[in-house]
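Quick review question:
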């Protein structure tokens, strides 16, 4: 309420045109730009083979998620969202992805929402992703997002509709409880769908009007395509298309273009993601807040140590 949210901080000092965009296009689905980007798989395959010889098995999905996380960290406007015509910068990076417990028509679908700082190495992102998938692939285990959805799904239609209208109102006015935002896959930095696993090509997915997802990325199936070079030669290359749906209100075309190029750079050169990024240097209010937290933690540790003597 009053501009404060559990998942974001209000953005100030914006250009007039930027600030006006949500008033011209108040509904997210009306402000979506669709973009296709092709990824050369040669660098991916060489990297995966090299790492496999070192005893580590990476997948396309893990590398693409890591590329998205790193890009969003380095291009902070891509981690903004709009709520009630106001701009917010997310407090963290979240990736939502849907998986099937069984690849059958009636197999249960689970949506995971994984938090990141953006500074993680590829190995750390793989570990987080693998742990979350393993934890939620148990057939009889119910994911927290599924638990909330199942409670709502058991309601009569009129009650479900009324509950959702309440949630929308609370979200619009920044009063949606933190635990619901954390459980909601629609309140996320990017939603990823790996369509290769079900043998589909990329699609251009809509952005949900509920929640505040700014980017939706779909990974299409691998294909062999003719690619021309500047010298007139035509070679057949292994490639994969990514379908991107972007909320054009949070950034202009140039910013998005540079961001997508960075994403593809990381995707085609995964070795750039092996090193963890350093902690950012804090200044001003952020530094004072960190010092205050450290001092409080030191006092707590000293009191605990004294108690255990």
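Suggested answer, residue by residue:
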């Amino acid at each position: 309420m009053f501009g404060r949210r559990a998942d974001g901080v209000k953005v100030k000092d914006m250009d007039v045109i930027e600030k006006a965009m949500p008033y011209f296009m108040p509904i997210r689905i009306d402000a979506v730009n669709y973009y296709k980007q092709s990824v050369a798989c040669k660098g991916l395959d060489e990297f995966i083979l090299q790492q496999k010889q070192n005893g580590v098995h990476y997948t396309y999905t893990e590398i693409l998620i890591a590329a998205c996380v790193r890009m969003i960290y380095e291009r902070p406007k891509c981690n903004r969202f709009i709520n009630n015509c106001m701009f917010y910068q997310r407090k963290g990076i979240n990736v939502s992805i849907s998986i099937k417990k069984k690849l059958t028509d009636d197999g249960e679908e689970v949506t995971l929402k994984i938090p990141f700082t953006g500074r993680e190495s590829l190995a750390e992102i793989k570990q987080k992703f693998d742990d979350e998938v393993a934890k939620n692939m148990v057939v009889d285990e119910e994911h927290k997002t599924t638990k909330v959805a199942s409670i709502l799904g058991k309601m009569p239609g009129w009650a479900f509709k009324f509950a959702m209208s309440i949630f929308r109102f609370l979200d619009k006015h920044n009063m949606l409880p933190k635990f619901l935002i954390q459980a909601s896959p629609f309140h996320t930095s990017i939603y990823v769908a790996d369509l290769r696993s079900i043998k589909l090509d990329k699609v251009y997915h809509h952005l949900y009007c509920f929640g505040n997802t700014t980017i939706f990325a779909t990974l299409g199936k691998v294909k062999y395509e003719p690619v021309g070079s500047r010298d007139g030669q035509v070679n057949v290359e292994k490639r994969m298309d990514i379908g991107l749906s972007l909320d054009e209100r949070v950034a202009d075309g140039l910013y998005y273009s540079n961001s997508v190029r960075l994403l593809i750079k990381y995707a085609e050169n995964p070795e750039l993601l092996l090193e963890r990024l350093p902690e950012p240097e804090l200044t001003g209010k952020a530094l004072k807040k960190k010092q205050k937290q450290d001092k409080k933690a030191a006092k707590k540790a000293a009191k605990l140590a004294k108690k255990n003597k």
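Why it works: The chain has two domains: 8-278, 284-309. The CA atoms of residues 75 and 259 lie 6 Å apart.
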